[in-house]
């Protein structure tokens, strides 16, 4: 199976109440993820990028069924998992894993590395004996380059640096030999030099053990470094998607252009595209009609205000949801 | 004469586990109207330098040596009362995450008014309100929003309000600690633009403390790279980006992926910064440095001026300079 993950028209809405319903308060919905479709192949890292509140994290969690989707389909290795009950999901869980943003909160401070890594092995019954379990733990610590492994097994999270903790978090996932990893801003809490170490480790491990990865980030420069393909999200929708070269070097959507022009460049003499947009991201409770970006877009016209834009193919692996992409 | 000159500053934290020499012999210069970037990883002492300059250190920390010359006066010798006349009016600080420090139960405008009336005893409330509206306008917030509460502001607007507050008493120097972390990229771009505008408009002198070398490329005129409580390299922005001479600067520059140009393999240094309770003798980068040799371990290299205004603390700066390939 080439496609590890296929997501079709995925939708996730959350109810929010305004006022007290007993007294006629209205029931409102936040459409956090709105008809999102993409596929991730084996050995591919797909980036989801966008500003806070764009729905990238909700997409990642819904794909793993940590949130129940309210619409659309999720196919994992061809199996439809959209409506599976938690008990039925259990058979897929070891293969679909998540790495969280904050390694200071994702590891239990009362457990040492040994018990942190034992838990997934025991939960999924992967080791037949104690010695086999120990062997798996030592091997995975070696894989995430926590050498020598013996020095780390009895350490507690507070004895580890941020980079070491994130490596333990990665080990906890890798010990299951997952086929899909959702990594939600895995390096945003780490220092520059440590960050590159963890990213390179992720890329290395992908080469060695092979998995598909959904990489959620707000940092386009990092996405470009890490990912094979990138999807740009705005108010719950993917507004541009494609190979990283297409999206970063030839951005077609005005929002993508605005994002790229805002990224600071570590080179004072560099020049790049300049596109400024007005205002802030509107509330996801009141998503603007038509193209959700139209109130901020310098090119918006009547058609943008009325008509929803669908992703259309404009290159070998390049899709954009803006009918004006040719004129911009 | 430089507006601010820090000479051989030493600041330590006294903890039950031992004395942490967070800043250990730092010298810096800030000229009027310039923007100095103080860059390094967490724990390198960059925030401690700023807190020392403002004399806002926590109770377990003390300046143990050196001078902070500001407008010809040594701040280290100043008492709290004397510092109160300097803070806000001569020098003000935007703390990291300051936008979350706005009091949620007071209107944003009133909080700026309070800062104004506290520091200018003879200013009337009416004058302060007028000045608040001017300040908000200056930082690009609609002055009518002065009546709003912080929760009605977006993250970028809160940061603008905090900048307005820091500028309220017309300081000569603005110290900004990570002014854009926690902001989204478009908002960050706008705040950087605002800072550039303000610098031009008000001839403001700026110290920007950050871990992000791409940010300093956008707003700073000079950059100081800090490692383990010391200055590794100091120079004009173009010196640092085009001709880095310290292995640590090299490593940092190599660790920031760019949205432009070819994608290159990022490089990093093995190991971790040293424990500042017990720093190694010799160069502090020695255990991690690819250029290290015998003398690096024995004696710490002093900061030397290699070309006009470009200082580096490394014996092998010549080799490092040669090996640098600009991405």
For this entry, give a set of tags.
heterodimer; A: 8-stranded mixed beta sheet; 24% strand; globular; B: 327 residues; 8-stranded mixed beta sheet; 4-stranded antiparallel beta sheet
Folded structure, characterized:
The complex is a heterodimer of chains A (328) and B (327). Chain A has 328 residues and is an alpha/beta fold. Chain A has a domain of 150 residues: Rossmann fold. Chain A is built from 11 helices and 12 strands. The longest helix of chain A has 18 residues. The radius of gyration of chain A is 21 Å and the shape is globular. The model of chain A has no long low-confidence stretch (mean pLDDT 92). Chain B has 327 residues and is α/β, with parallel strands linked by helices. Chain B folds into 2 domains: 210 residues, P-loop containing nucleotide triphosphate hydrolases (Rossmann fold, 3-Layer(aba) Sandwich), CATH 3.40.50.300; 80 residues, no CATH class. Helix content of chain B is 32%, strand content 24%. Chain B is built from 11 helices and 12 strands. The mean pLDDT of chain B is 92. At the A-B interface, helix 7, helix 8 and helix 10 of A face helix 6, helix 7, helix 8 and helix 9 of B.
Could you write a compact summary of the structure shown?
The complex is a heterodimer of chains A (328) and B (327). By secondary structure, chain A is an alpha/beta fold.
